[in-house]
Design a protein that fits this description.
The chain is of the alpha+beta class. Helices cover 34% and strands 28% of the residues. β3 and β4 form a beta hairpin.
Length: 89
């Protein structure tokens, strides 16, 4: 399996009402990612792109064929702070 470059993994952050709720309630950010990216690819890319530590990654492919990644940050990093940097809040 070919390793993806971390800049090719995360396509963009998802901004929706549910995504904002996850930021506030569970310290999670939601990203649309490359279909070929696995959990480890997403974790590595988010840590390198945004200088945070990732606790957990869950991925799913939507019926539309788009891959979403739910990224939970370690407690010392606040998803709300990163969301402000990304322009979500």
């Amino acid at each position: 399996m070919v390793k993806l470059d971390f800049r090719d993994v995360v396509l963009y952050p998802l901004i929706s009402e549910d995504a904002v709720t996850l930021i506030e309630a569970e310290n999670k950010l939601t990203f649309i990612v490359n279909l070929k990216a696995g959990k480890n690819d997403v974790k590595r890319a988010v840590e390198q792109l945004y200088q945070v530590e990732v606790a957990e990654v869950n991925v799913l492919v939507t019926p539309e064929g788009v891959k979403k990644a739910y990224v939970k940050l370690e407690p010392e990093f606040k998803a709300a702070d990163l969301a402000v940097k990304l322009g979500i809040f």
